[in-house]
Amino acid sequence: MTQQPADIPDVVYALVAAPGFARHGICFAARPAGLFRSDDGGRTWRDLYTGLNFERPVTTAALAVSPAFENDGCLFAGVPGGVLRSSDGGQTWHAAGLGTPPPFVSVLAVSPDFANDGTLFAGTLEDGVFRSADGGSHWAAWNFGLLDLNVLCMVVSPDFARDETLFVGVESGLYRSTTGGRAWREPAADRHGPQPADFAPVLSLAISPHYATDGTLWAGSEAHGLFCSRDRGKSWARLGEGSIHGAVNSIVVASDYPTNPHLLVSLGDRLLVSRDDGLSWQEWPLGVNPEGSIIALAASLGLTPGAPLSFVRSIVTSPLSGTSP
Amino acid sequence: MPRKFRPGVVFQPATYRGMQGGIDKLAKAIRPTLGPRPRVVAMDKVEYYESMPRLLDDGATIARLIRRLPDRDEDVGAMYLRDVLWRLQNEVGDGTATAAVLFQSVYNQGVHYLTSGGNARRLHTFLERGLRAVLDELTTMTVQLDGREQLAAVAETVCYDPPLAELLGEVFEVVGEFGRVEIRAGRSRQLEREYVEGMYWERGVLSRDMIADWEHVRTELEEPAILISDLEIKDPRQLLPPIAMAIEARYRSLLIMVGDMSESAIGLLLANKHPEKLRVVAVRTPGYGKEQQAWVLQDLAVLTGGRAFAQVAGDTFSRMRPEDFGHARRGWADLNTFGIVGGKGNPRQLRQHIITLRNAYEQTDDPHTRDLLRQRIGKLLGGSATLWVGGNTELEINARKERAERAAAALRGAMLHGVLPGGGVALLNCRPVLQRMLAEASDPDERAAYRILMRALAEPLRTIVSNAGFDASDVMAQLKLAGPGYGFDVRREQVVDMLKAGIYDAAVVQKSVVYTAVASAAQALTVDVLVHRSEPERASMPDPLTPKRL
């Protein structure tokens, strides 16, 4: 079954381009109507749940793809009460429950070393973080020290195999685990400057590809703009104070950061890009007027000026794509 | 033949001679246990049923078991030191051997100086002045722990058991400095640990008939409404308003917490013919005494977002409102405990509540209050760990469990207050501060005090090295060449940078050790006269030997 996005009049909760997108154009979209796959860079989409014969559409709010997708074809979808996993790019599925009462999976994140450690995490809206160490077959709640169980976003350190670090943004702030998700602490220890609890809820997070050495991450808040920490979350500074207002729904960092210090954020129906590590911001031309907020964003081909294709997706029913300014 | 005690008054120089003899005997009995390669002290049968001597390598236990010396003058000195060591043990759970060595050195040097004409009161004053400088210097040297390896290294300095230390490092990295850790005797040779999500209290269901799952002897509640109180329910009708309200709100399960409940009220709950519509489970309010119960009510109210109904405030259920219920994602109860997972209180209020409790913890000096506050914080942080300590024999398991408890206490202190270079190096590194003070001092008593302290601060390191079978003077010469921060790793048998080598001491323990030993020795030096009564009271047990709750 092949569907055009226009046939699916609903929201896109999550959008992920598979590793190697530039070659094969495979990407996935999680929606209230289910999970959709495109093999042509987002031009056409097909429902990946058709073989499961669900009686009604299964809301899929979270989505994650293995870093070794081209080899293992592993794909994970967060559905009410559990996680679906596929090891063939979405053709067949296995379900794993997260216990009762059924949690609502709001975010999924895969270890960068997934091929070796089989570790992935599920953030939920009322039950905190679940962790699987066997590729998504079995899950256990790991919430030591996590005082707020309403997880809105999550990032895993690129050096997870060594530092076992991940962050979650929650309604009341930000928590960090340096124990592979087993225990959580508020990272802020420096009382100078804003603290995550001051700008919560934290809606979006992004982490530097060189986090192990630069300790940099970004947090987007619902009402207070964008913040950056360069010391692993201990202290924070506001970015784009004059231009970034309102909810920061998603943040994209250039894959070659800090060589190219490019950042892209979605603010309601606008996209802003910075080429100088957040000092100045300019509008990203969308080409069309989106109907509503942009909440899912992917830029798998980078943010370099003049890149042939950057891939952006919003809740509107028509595809959005454009060339970076 | 029973020994005859005669009353008497003892003056100098017999006072110093007698006390010094007792202090030396006790300190020398403890001294061999200091360091990672301790010697063992064999103690003759302690209890009448014991058939062989006890083999001890723990200074606190040795001090506890020496209850009287035959010479009455010596007994005063020994019991004074014993009391000092036990106060220290109760306060920080470790460091008694270091304290004994320090105390002995300060006292003996002090006596030597005073008998040659020094002034005891002035010496006391200057020893305390030097002590303050040493404590400040230790604060400057303190570094914070980071990561499992460092935690394990601290644990190992206390328990000298690498597998146990490694496991303790992992457990405390997970549960944190306030986390709940139960240490139990294992049922096998292995070390095992289990993590439990959520929080639980040691109060079970009020009736066995409330257990729904007899296979697991447990009742699980999904999305329970929680009634938080310490009220005593005598009349079943008292329960009708909350039950009616829960039914009206279509709650599927209700956890009732009360101070007590009459048989007839329990009967009302058990008469529920439609548990599929509303399952009700009742438990007793946790806590011993009204004050502890009030704390539990307060914590549960914050955690679940409910209102606490307190007997002392004259509360009743008759005027309760639907929003007075607390809520959680899950609740459970068995015959002895009940627990809550995913309390739905306001996370910001919960965070603030924990900050308030932490501040109270930092401010209080009362060990019992600190212990209770730590337990409360640990519960609110949402998890606990149980560590089963195994071994080949019951004796070995108990000894290992006791070491695990001491190591756990030291780890908590280290996580809260940081660490210092271990192996006696931190104390040694305080000597330059005293050297500067000595250079500026002209008063003979003051100069003597700083000299005494400088020499005493080297004594723990010298003892550790000697106990391991090395020449202390030779090692001290090597350390002088190596510079500050370097110490002797007796296991690798080489001079190393102690922090880089992961050899730490908990800062809070070291500071308490120095403070307690030096201040007490300075005080003991001011004792001039001993008065013996006709029948001395038997030295009391400083503390019951009940296992510590961590």
Provide structural commentary:
The complex is a heterodimer of chains A (325) and B (550). Chain A is mainly β and 325 residues long. Chain A has six helices and 25 strands. Chain A has helices at 21-24, 69-72, 114-117, 160-163, 196-199, 211-214, and strands at residues 14-17, 27-31, 34-38, 46-47, 62-65, 75-79, 82-86, 94-97, 105-110, 120-124, 129-132, 140-141, 151-156, 166-170, 173-177, 202-207, 217-221, 226-229, 237-239, 248-253, 263-267, 270-274, 282-283, 310-312, 320-322. A four-stranded antiparallel sheet of chain A has the order 1-2-3-4, with no helix packed on it. The longest helix of chain A has 4 residues, at 21-24. Chain A starts with 13 loop residues before the first strand and ends with a strand. The relative contact order of chain A is 0.10. Mean pLDDT of chain A is 85; it is low at 1-8 and 308-325. Chain B is an alpha/beta fold and 550 residues long. In chain B, the strands form seven sheets. In chain B, strands 6, 7, 8, 10, 12, 13, 14 and 15 form an eight-stranded mixed sheet that branches. Chain B is elongated and about 90 Å long. Chain B starts with 7 loop residues before the first strand and ends in an 18-residue tail after the last strand. At the A-B interface, loops of A face helix 7 and helix 11 of B.
Q: Secondary-structure map with pairings?
A:
The complex is a heterodimer of chains A (325) and B (550).
Chain A: E1 14-17, H1 21-24, E2 27-31, E3 34-38, E4 46-47, E5 62-65, H2 69-72, E6 75-79, E7 82-86, E8 94-97, E9 105-110, H3 114-117, E10 120-124, E11 129-132, E12 140-141, E13 151-156, H4 160-163, E14 166-170, E15 173-177, H5 196-199, E16 202-207, H6 211-214, E17 217-221, E18 226-229, E19 237-239, E20 248-253, E21 263-267, E22 270-274, E23 282-283, E24 310-312, E25 320-322
Antiparallel strand pairs in A: 1-2, 2-3, 3-4, 5-6, 6-7, 7-8, 9-10, 10-11, 11-12, 13-14, 14-15, 16-17, 17-18, 18-19, 20-21, 21-22, 22-23, 24-25
Chain B: E1 8-10, H1 14-30, E2 41-43, E3 54-56, H2 59-65, H3 72-92, H4 96-115, H5 120-141, H6 148-159, H7 162-175, E4 180-185, E5 192-197, E6 199-201, E7 219-222, E8 225-229, E9 232-233, H8 240-248, E10 253-258, E11 260-261, H9 263-270, E12 279-284, H10 289-304, E13 308-309, E14 326-333, E15 338-343, H11 347-363, H12 367-380, E16 383-389, H13 394-417, E17 419-421, H14 425-428, H15 431-440, H16 444-467, H17 472-482, E18 486-489, E19 494-497, E20 504-506, H18 507-524, E21 530-532
Parallel strand pairs in B: 4-16, 8-10, 8-13, 9-11, 10-12
Antiparallel strand pairs in B: 1-21, 2-3, 5-16, 6-15, 7-14, 8-14, 14-15, 17-20, 18-19
Helix pairs in contact in B: 1-3, 1-4, 3-4, 3-18, 4-16, 4-18, 5-15, 5-16, 5-18, 6-7, 6-13, 7-13, 11-12, 15-16, 16-17
